[in-house]
Amino acid sequence: MASSHRYDAIVIGGGHNGLVAAAYLSRAGKRVAVLEKRHLVGGAAVTEEIFPGFHFTVFSYAVSLLRPEIIADLDLRRYGLDITTLSTTFCPLPGNDYLLRGPTDTDRVSEISRFSRRDAEAYIPFNERMSQVAQAVQPILTMVPPDLSTLAPQDMLGVMKLAGLLRGMSRPVLETFIKLMTMSAADFLDEWFETDVLKAALAPSGIIGTMTSPRTPGSAYVLLYHYVGEIDGEYREWGFARGGNGAVSEAIASAARGFGAEIVTGADVERVILKDGRATGVALRNGDEYHAGTVISGLDPKRTFLHLFDPSDLPAELLGDLRRWNSAGSSAKVNLALDGLPEFSALPGDGVHMCGMFAINPSLDYLERAYDDGKYGEFSRQPYMDGLILTKVDPSMAPPGKHVMSLFVQYAPYHLNGGWTDERREALGDTVVNTLAEYMPDLKQRILHRQVVTPVDIEKTIGITGGNIFHGELSLHQLFSLRPLARWCNYRTPVPGFWQCGSGTHPGGCVSGTSAMLAAQEILRAG
Prior knowledge:
Layout: E1 4-12, H1 16-27, E2 32-36, E3 48-51, E4 54-56, H2 68-73, E5 83-86, E6 89-93, E7 97-101, H3 105-112, H4 117-141, H5 153-167, H6 171-182, H7 185-190, H8 196-202, H9 219-227, E8 230-231, E9 234-235, E10 238-241, H10 245-258, E11 262-265, E12 269-275, E13 278-284, E14 289-297, H11 301-307, H12 316-323, E15 331-338, E16 357-360, H13 364-375, E17 384-389, E18 403-410, H14 422-437, H15 443-446, E19 447-453, H16 455-462, E20 498-500, H17 514-526
Parallel strand pairs: 1-2, 1-14, 2-11, 14-20
Antiparallel strand pairs: 3-4, 5-10, 6-7, 8-9, 12-13, 13-14, 15-18, 15-19, 16-17, 17-18
């Protein structure tokens, strides 16, 4: 028999953003329910035992943008959050050469000087400038975007705050910020460095998760977006949570429960319930209903509005704009269970394995050619890969002596020519393994199991439209006051009582929780 439940607020989707929103609202004394379709919470930030004894961060895998104030406000370390900084990256090159960016500036400058003394001298000033811009921009990424279509006082205050932040930047920082907002990553890096090896090592931060190339205008902003991440006050640091990104989600979920939130798994929301045009709850596919004065969606914008509402309940303009919202994914994951540590031929022995993080991106032309394949509807014949041997950080993720490797792969377009089939999925897996084996000759003999996850698999498994890991491209026309849409950039929607808190809202994707933190603050402000 169907049942009915009543709360102060209901959160649709138990991804990390939905959990953050629930934690903040519960912390403020609200009675909150989180409704998650799958058997576990986390959305894209999950850890699962895909093969017996082998645990994978199936989708997302690194931590770089999780806001320190969220960690503090929710006391996540108390709930087991333990992030290890990944400060060394290995980039193998043709001819058994490599670029090994070590943990200190001294290590990195020394290594870069093997390729260019000039670039070695420019590297620290470059990082200092990027850190300055990141610090200057951070308040923009953590403010509620003003609705530029209205002259309402609160929105004008937002415009004034934005203008004040820009005025507060020094001329060099402001000039760099403008360049980053308008240039391609490749052109921007050309202004600082001469050696292609270094530029290729830095450029992927401008393309991760997007269907753009290093030479596409606007990709420099994505590069900046990843520089804003910090761990323990250090900008541009990446980390790995012990237990995988599922441990991040579980820590947030535990905090939410600690504040009194109820988290329900296996709860498939079918529609939003409206009364006199206002959201008053949700109905599940099993017939159960949950009622509340506030309903919040952590789903992507397309799934939120095109699946949970009758079209007649929404403005036609909103529906038209949403259908044009660019949310086609371009990234895949390949997860490998290994019976031992493979070696890079360029650095045999323990060298690269001191950190376990590596990237296959030997040149800007390599990245551009990989993009060309994706642009024309094919997966890259020689893909860009961002790899992490998770068990070098957390040995408990595999049986003793065994290892797990996570490979983030571009480009793998959602709209693949002819569509994604089992055969095409495995062909992508073969391409990834064969490409990596050019640098790691003993890889194939180490592989025990393989999982290949395409954008279509992401969509089917965790419900992100198009399998886009950011819930929508981080392109210039889908940022700040235009994210997800003009007039609905401040976490509000045309439906009274209904809000958004997912990565499709400002500031965007990655495991940051910022969208949900800002949304929760706005909900509490609105009373």
